[in-house]
UniProtKB/TrEMBL annotation, chain A:
InterPro entries with a match to the protein in the record: Vps35, Vps35_C
Organism: Raphanus sativus (Radish)
Record's GO cellular component terms: cytosol; endosome membrane; Golgi apparatus; late endosome; retromer, cargo-selective complex
Family, similarity comment: Belongs to the VPS35 family.
Record's keyword annotation contains Membrane: yes
Membrane topology: Peripheral membrane protein
Protein name: Vacuolar protein sorting-associated protein 35
Statement: the UniProt record of this protein carries the keyword Cytoplasm: yes
TrEMBL record, chain B:
Cell compartments where the protein resides: Cytoplasm; Endosome membrane; Golgi apparatus, trans-Golgi network membrane; Prevacuolar compartment membrane
InterPro entries: Arrestin-like_C, Ig_E-set, Vps26-related
Record-given protein name: Vacuolar protein sorting-associated protein 26B
Lineage summary: Eukaryota, Viridiplantae, Streptophyta, Embryophyta, Tracheophyta
Gene: LOC108842529
Chief location: cytoplasm
GO biological process: intracellular protein transport
Description of how the protein assembles with itself and partners: Component of the retromer complex which consists of VPS29 (MAG1), VPS26 (VPS26A or VPS26B), VPS35 (VPS35A or VPS35B or VPS35C), VPS5/17 (SNX1 or SNX2A or SNX2B). Component of a retromer subcomplex consisting of VPS29 (MAG1), VPS26 (VPS26A or VPS26B), VPS35 (VPS35A or VPS35B or VPS35C).
Protease keyword on record: no
Membrane-topology descriptor: Peripheral membrane protein
Keywords associated with the record: Cytoplasm, Endosome, Golgi apparatus, Membrane, Protein transport, Transport
Family, as annotated: Belongs to the VPS26 family.
Length: 790, 304
């Protein structure tokens, strides 16, 4: 409805403008000055309307001001024909209505300046003064906008043809500043026009007009006479005075931004304290963070783009000024949301990183300021603010690509404390990713401490957090994966320091709770074992320090792994024990190794009940034990005996069978001369065969010919025999193998078994060994007489 | 028919010419029938000289009881139309009674005539100067011919010309201070000034400056006052804020103004006022009227 009226009025006004413009043009064509003035005044009279919205008024204004261009030309021609321009200047002022009169005055004024009959200063001053007469915000704004437009190319500035004395450019400056001031006043006043309930709409419309005001600043920015001194002493103070005094949020916000965007970077740098000084004086509702961040961004880019600028930054001490200013702003604006203040610090940080990347103390100072700001608000629940902090904390990481540097920032962890759990973890992950990506070595125990302090969100549960039913298992795994990978980046070539690192890491990791430990302890253990091996390889503990002997570390590992068995990760614990035992073995620490085995056995007996798990565990035990060289005969006997015993007690017969023949290895150590107990080996094999027989019988009974399981068992046994045969063990005879082979043949004849290929390849291997010319193998194989070979 | 008409035609043609008629400045003057005619312009203390030419129509003779030329300064009130009050009356006898058979020319001269008042053409009153030639005749009626001319007197710039400055207002509503640079302006002058807004609590639509002429005629109980607005000049558009000052610049040239006349021969006065009018959004008018004195400056004879 209203919009319709708006259209209607615009249409009416537009056609009136067109009509009068037509008559004006006709008068111009016939050199009729009087009529030209009359119709132009009538045309401009249409701009007196109060009915149009700013948007529509703008359209009307454009149309009318377009028409004025031909009038301007006409005035110029008139003066060329000898008409006194001073008289014309008076003549247009006879118009009865103020608005047409002033439009005409501006038009003729611009011609007047160009004619150089009078000093531009006087005309400019007169025009800008006379325009005061239009106090209606919208109409005044457009009138002054017209004034700015027609005088723009005539402003006497240095280098232009209108240059008068040295003061001339100051006159132009004065003119633009004054016009700017008045326009801004009108613009600000617009909000009070009309009923309060339409305020929102009005503000929107007002915002659309802002460029009319801002254009003046653009003009100022392009005036050639404006150098740093002028800018510092005149332009900036005057603009800021107006900005501050207008006490209007919209204007302040827009104009501050304009100032920052329009004038050159080095001006800003040199007048930083003035510009910043204005910030706390702005209205509390002004979005100061956008303003300041714009400024800092510009300065950052400036510093990045030109190397020569950097000394200037130092010279004016830009950093502390900015830091100080932000502090002031935050202090002054009590209601500033946390997200806004964090954004401010974020931009300051970015600025610092750009400009003073070498000044870590500055960076820390920014963090510190942020902390003290956050301390007032407490923990952040605001999602936006949290996101800003994450960005804030990531910035130095991205810049330095080196976590070690970050660790030097004492305030860094303090900032993190204000994040909620999720965000805290996110930052921790970012930190770790940075380490992984950049292959950063964390090389001292203190750094480790600091690092774990930073990522403690990943390391342990937070207090007061109810059992997170929400936690996504996949995410959790991923996070802990990161931690696990991280452990390997904590490394120092010096064993002394490295062991310290391990002690510290352990301390931190142990706080992790049952869910994390199974994932985080293994890397720690392996890292420690690596160290132990290194120590063994190197000199014998040159420091005489107790903490870094292998014993101590192994002792530590015992305790560490024990924790795992407490959190029902027994299988893992068992594996780790065995790993440790191996390490102890390498270090010739018999008792320690024995201790580890004991623990492993205990776990096997008490904790591992699943039969499959038992099989796996037992194999590991056997495998490890077989390689142990450190034990004396007695200890070894005990452990071996125990293992064999376990083997025989497995639930499934095939498993038993396999475990038992594996045990045979325990009596036959390749390197250790002292251990070649042939009797026992054969004993084991025999026993295994017996079990296999039993399996065979059982399967024959239950399912007739279809079973294959035992046949493969036999083949496996056959392979074991061949192994020992090759090793040259006297008790393994050709006859034994022969009989086993016969047995297999018998069984396969009975039923076509699935183990066919296994048998065939075994036989082919035997055949191959028989044919060997040298190496003595053929001799051993000659002993086996088999029908199959015929 | 023509013959008959001819019988009533005046017997002769009387014309009046000024001796410097070709060089003398002519100015337009509105006649009673609404048309404007160009008439010569004089000022006080000038000598009016010229010739009166009487030319009888062909074949006629003019008998007369004497020919005279008069210079009259007259004031005419419109409510008393037809009755002239002559404040100046000078007579020159041109001829003794006799007959005129052919064209006859009489030179005349009124040296340094005192013409203290300007020609004026108002709403209710008119002041005019005229040369009147009378060919006095007996029964057939005298032949009378008029030649109007205009008188404008010039004044030097006044030695004292104070500005007009005043503070006016409505309590708690509007408070302004206005200033006009002078109190006396010549007719081609420009009024400069400023309006300061000390307090603004009303929403204003515009502010105008009017030039008003107040013509009062008669005396005592019969005084007639007529006020005309000669100029309406918009000074401001919209509502200013406190502390704002609005410039005034009004050129007087385009308006049809006369000097201020005070008590002309006890018959009439013409005074001028500047009326500052503020109109609010409800179309209420707030105004303040100030008298200004207008005078004619010598220099501006060249223009117009």
């Amino acid at each position: 409805m209203i919009a319709d009226d708006d259209e209607k009025w615009l249409a009416a006004a537009t056609s009136a403008v067109k009509q009068n413009a037509f008559y004006m043009q006709r008068a111009i064509d016939s050199n009729n000055l009087k009529d030209a003035l009359k119709f132009s005044a009538q045309m401009l009279g249409e701009l007196r309307t109060s009915k149009l919205s700013p948007h529509k008024y703008y359209e009307l204004y454009i149309r009318a001001s377009d028409e004025l261009r031909s009038l301007e030309m006409f005035f110029r021609d008139e003066t060329a024909r000898g008409c006194s321009i001073a008289e014309l200047y008076e003549l247009v002022q006879h118009a009865g209505n103020i608005l047409p009169r002033l439009y005409l005055l501006c038009t003729i004024g611009s011609v007047y300046i160009k004619s150089k009959d009078v000093t531009a200063k006087d005309i400019l001053k007169d025009l800008v003064e006379m325009c005061r007469a239009v106090q209606h915000p919208l109409r005044g704004l457009f009138l002054r906008s017209y004034l700015a437009q027609v005088t723009r190319d005539k402003l006497p500035s240095i280098g232009s043809e209108l240059e008068g004395d040295a003061e001339t450019h100051m006159d132009a400056l004065e003119f633009v500043l004054q016009n700017f001031t008045e326009m801004n006043k009108l613009w600000v006043r617009m909000q009070h026009q009309g009923p309060a309930r339409e305020k929102e709409k009005r503000e929107k419309e007002r915002n659309e007009l802002r460029d009319l005001v801002g254009k003046n600043l653009h003009i100022l920015g392009q005036l050639e006479g404006v150098d740093l001194v002028v800018y510092r002493d005149t332009v900036l103070p005057r603009i800021l005075e107006q900005v501050v005094n207008c006490k209007d949020e919209l204007a302040q916000c827009y104009l501050m931004d304009c100032i920052i965007q329009v004038f050159p970077d080095d001006f800003h740098l040199q007048t930083l304290d003035v510009l910043l000084g204005a910030c706390p004086q702005l209205q509390p509702s002004v979005d100061i963070k956008t303003v300041l961040s714009g400024l800092m961004e510009r300065l950052s880019n400036y510093a990045a783009s030109s190397v020569e600028a950097l000394p200037n930054f130092l010279q004016v001490d830009a950093f502390s000024k900015l830091n100080h200013a932000i502090g002031k702003v935050v202090e002054a604006q009590v209601d500033l949301p946390a997200s806004a203040s964090v954004t401010l610090y974020l931009f300051l940080l970015k600025f610092t990183l750009h400009v003073h990347s070498d000044r870590l103390d500055y960076v820390d100072q920014v963090l510190g300021s942020c902390v003290s700001q956050l301390s007032a608000t407490g923990k952040l629940c605001d999602d936006k603010a949290s996101k800003q902090i994450v960005a804030f904390l990531s910035a130095p990481l991205e810049k330095y690509n080196d976590v070690v540097t970050i660790l030097k920032l004492t305030n860094y962890p303090r900032v993190m404390e204000y994040l909620d759990h999720d965000k805290n973890k996110a930052v921790a992950v970012i930190i770790i990713q940075s380490i992984l990506k950049n292959d950063t070595r964390i090389a001292t125990a203190d750094e480790v401490d600091a690092l774990f302090e930073l990522i403690k969100g990943l390391i342990k549960d937070f207090d007061g957090l109810t059992d997170n039913d929400e936690i996504d298992e996949e995410d959790f795994q991923e996070e802990q994966n990161f931690v696990a990978r991280l452990v390997h980046f904590l490394y120092n070539d010096d064993p002394e320091e490295m062991s310290k690192i391990i002690f510290r890491v352990r301390k931190h990791i142990l706080t992790g709770g049952p869910k994390r430990l199974p994932l985080t302890i293994p890397p720690l253990v392996f890292s420690a074992l690596k160290l132990i091996r290194r120590m063994r390889g190197g000199d014998e503990n040159p420091f005489g320090d107790d903490t870094s002997t292998p014993q101590k570390i192994l002792q530590l590992l015992t305790e560490t792994v024990e924790v795992l068995s407490d959190v029902s990760a027994s299988e893992l614990a068992l594996r780790l024990y065995l790993q440790c035992a191996q390490a102890a073995n390498d270090c010739e620490l018999e008792t320690v190794a024995y201790e580890f085995f004991t623990k492993a056995y205990l776990l096997y007996e008490e904790e591992i009940s699943d039969s499959k798990a038992q099989v796996t565990a037992l194999r590991l035990i056997i495998g490890t034990l077989q390689r142990m060289r450190v034990f004396n005969a007695e200890n070894r006997e005990i452990l071996t005996h125990k293992a064999t015993g376990y083997s025989a007690k497995l639930l499934k017969k095939p498993d038993q069978c396999r475990a038992v023949y594996e045990c045979a290895h325990l009596y036959w150590a390749e390197e250790g001369e002292n251990l070649k107990d042939g009797e026992r080996v054969v004993h084991c094999l025999k026993r295994s065969q017996k079990i296999a027989d039993a399996v065979q019988q059982m399967s024959n009974k239950s399912r007739g010919a279809s079973s294959t399981g035992s046949v493969s068992l036999y083949v496996e046994l056959l392979n074991k025999y061949l192994y020992f045969l090759e090793k040259g063990y006297p008790q393994v005879t050709g006859e034994t193998i022969q009989s086993l082979a016969e047995l297999i043949r018998g069984e396969t004849k009975k039923a076509e078994s699935g183990a066919g290929s296994f048998i065939t390849s075994t036989l082919r291997y035997m055949e191959f060994q028989r044919q060997q010319e040298d190496g003595g193998m053929n001799e051993k194989y000659q002993k086996i007489k088999m029908e199959w070979f015929e | 028919m023509n013959y008959l008409l001819g019988a009533f035609k005046p017997a002769c043609n009387v014309s009046i010419t000024f001796s410097d008629g070709k060089n003398r400045k002519q100015v337009p003057m509105k006649k009673e029938n609404g048309q404007t005619a160009l008439v010569p312009l004089f000022q006080s203390q000038e000598t009016l000289s010229g010739k009166v030419c009487i030319e009888p129509y062909q074949g006629k003779k003019v008998e007369h009881n004497g020919v005279k030329v008069e210079l009259l300064g007259q004031i005419e009130m419109y409510f008393d139309r037809g009755n002239f009050y002559d404040f100046t009356s000078l007579v020159r006898e041109l001829d003794v009674p006799g007959d005129i058979y052919e064209r006859k020319t009489y030179p005349f001269e009124f040296p340094t005539v005192e013409m203290p008042y300007d020609t004026y053409n108002g709403v209710n009153v008119r002041l005019r100067y005229v040369l009147k030639v009378t060919v006095t005749r007996g029964y057939s009626g005298s032949i009378v011919e008029y030649q109007e001319f205009m008188v404008r007197n010039y004044a030097p710039p006044p030695p004292i010309n104070n500005s007009i400055k005043m503070e006016v207002g409505i309590e708690d509503c509007l408070h302004i201070e206005f200033e006009y640079n002078k109190s006396k302006y010549h007719l081609k002058d420009v009024i400069l000034g400023k309006i300061y807004f000390l307090l603004v609590r009303i929403k204003m639509k515009n502010m105008d400056l009017e030039i008003r002429r107040r013509e009062s005629t008669g005396a005592g109980a019969n005084t007639h006052v007529e006020t005309e607005t000669l100029a309406k000049f918009e000074l401001m558009d919209g509502t200013p804020v406190r502390g704002e000052s609005i410039p005034v610049r009004l050129f007087l040239a385009p308006y049809d103004l006369t000097p201020t006349h005070r008590n002309i021969n006890n018959k009439f006065s013409v005074k001028y006022y500047l009326n500052l009018v503020l109109v609010d959004e409800e179309d209420r008018r707030y105004f303040k009227q100030q008298e200004i004195t207008l005078y004619r400056l010598k220099a501006d004879t060249s223009s117009v």
